[in-house]
Amino acid sequence: MRRREINAGLAAALAAMSMPAAAAKPSRGKERETTMTHELKTGGDRGYLRIATEEAFATREQVDVFLRMVKDGTADKGMVSLWGFYAQSPSERATQIMDRLLELGPQRIAHMDATGIDKAILALTSPGVQPMLDVNEAKGIASRANDYLAERCAAYPDRFIGMTAVAPQDPEWSAAEIRRGAKDLGFKGVQINSHTQGHYLDEPQFDPIFRALSDTGQPLYIHPATLPDSMMGGMIDAGLDGAVFGFGVETSYHLLRLVTTGIFDRYPDLQIMAGHGFEALPYWLYRTNYMFQAGVRSQRYARLKPLKHDLFHYMRNNFLGTCSGLPFEPAIKLMIEVMGEDRVMYAMDYPYEYVPDEVRAMDNLAITDAQKKKFFQSNAERWFKL
Questions:
Q1: Chain centre distance of CA 85
Q2: Rounded to whole angstroms, how far apart are CA atoms 116 and 120?
Q3: What is the DSSP letter of 196?
Q4: What average pLDDT does the segment 216-240 reach?
Q5: ∠ at Cα 161 (155, 167), nearest 5°?
Q6: If you compute the radius of gyration of the chain from its CA atoms, what whole number of angstroms results?
Q7: What whole-number distance in Å separates Cα of residue 85 and Cα of residue 87?
Q8: Three-state secondary structure string covering 248-285
């Protein structure tokens, strides 16, 4: 199939998913086509700014370490699958994404302008420095990436907003870097790319990170990483290990580990963000809550203790979700219904997704004007303290 036909099919699918059922009739086709092809402008011409809340960049030395690990055999299966592709494949998708990841200047601004994105909240691309075995090397790369991002944010203060990268291999250093990012670099949040060499943030050694988040009042964005080898199973052979499925499995597992072991009872003001429809947890919430409470009552699992609230409470008071990579109206409406309209935000997931018609579909969401402004602008302003 030619690329022109693929793009036409994508546009048709986006149009169909973002319109009420009654409007999907063939007789309304020309009217809908006009709506779906509206010009994308920055500056708030539709009543809101568009703030994209999960946008990635990379540094050359970060990618070079990934390549070294792939080549010398120290990378896990997930990194070999993910970065063996993005950093080495001659395919159009891989080369284009690498070019865009490594650029935080005029090209990125031009792409934001072309899709009407007023501001981008930027974080070091997954898996950050977390798989790196040399802890001092990991800390150095993270620190230099933070300095570079701060310089780029200063160069484009009205367009770029930074999140701090850390090396959870050293929790105390990471806590200090969170404080440096908040105080000295002007960053507005922290991103951690899920597990760190198979270890999860509910483990007690990571508590300094949560103390620093509490001290600074900054949100934590938990971004997906590839599954650790202990969880990978047949995912790679099935072609399902990355963003297509495995990312969501691994990250939703991480989020549930945190909430069910009481992180929000210890840190009641903590705000944790996640993308991709909050990794599908709003859809599963009723069953997860029911079975978690049943497990606690039966004392089936020694690690699970009664919480102060049910999981619905934490979803509506401590979790924040974005639509990165999931510009799908039914999923966004479910997030708004389950999490609350003040807790759902827009994200593009650039450069891994860069499709102007996805932005148009989000402009055409069948939600109220007030909800749409929250979704695109004011929720991000509130939670990132912009």
A1: 20
A2: 11
A3: B
A4: 97
A5: 110
A6: 21
A7: 6
A8: HHHHHHHHHHHHHCCHHHHCCCCCEEECCCHHHHHHHH
Task: Report yes or no: 352 and 243 within 8 Å, Cβ to Cβ.
Answer: yes
Q: Directed axis angle between helix 207-216 and helix 171-183, to 10°? A: 10
Amino acid (1-letter code) at residue 26: P
Residues 47-90: pLDDT tens digits? 999 999 999 999 999 999 999 999 999 999 999 999 999 999 99
What are the phi and psi torsion angles at 155 (to 5°)? -70, -30
| Separation of CA 245 from chain center | 14
Peptide bond into 330 cis (omega under 30): no
* 164's tokens: 């701090």
* Residue-level pLDDT at 326: 97
Q: Phi and psi dihedrals of 139, rounded to 5?
A: -65, -40
Which residues sit opposite 56 in a β-bridge? Answer: 123
- 359 within 8 A of 348, measured Cβ to Cβ: yes
91-120: per-residue pLDDT in tens? Answer: 999 999 999 999 999 999 999 999 999 999
Point out which residues pair with 191 in neighbouring strands: 165, 221
Contact by Cβ (8 Å): 343, 374 = no
Q: What is the dihedral of CA 94, 251, 111, 109, to 10 degrees?
A: -120
**Helices 281-298 and 246-260, packing angle to 10 deg:** 40
H or E element at residue 11 = helix 3-17
Per residue in 299-350, pLDDT tens?
Answer: 999 999 999 999 999 999 999 999 999 999 999 999 999 999 999 999 999 9
Q: Any idea how long the chain is? A: 386
* Rounded distance between C-alpha atoms, residue 57 and residue 24, angstroms: 38
User: Is the pLDDT assigned to residue 230 strictly greater than 50?
Assistant: yes
Taking alpha carbons only, the member of 339, 333, 342, 332 closest to residue 316 is: 339
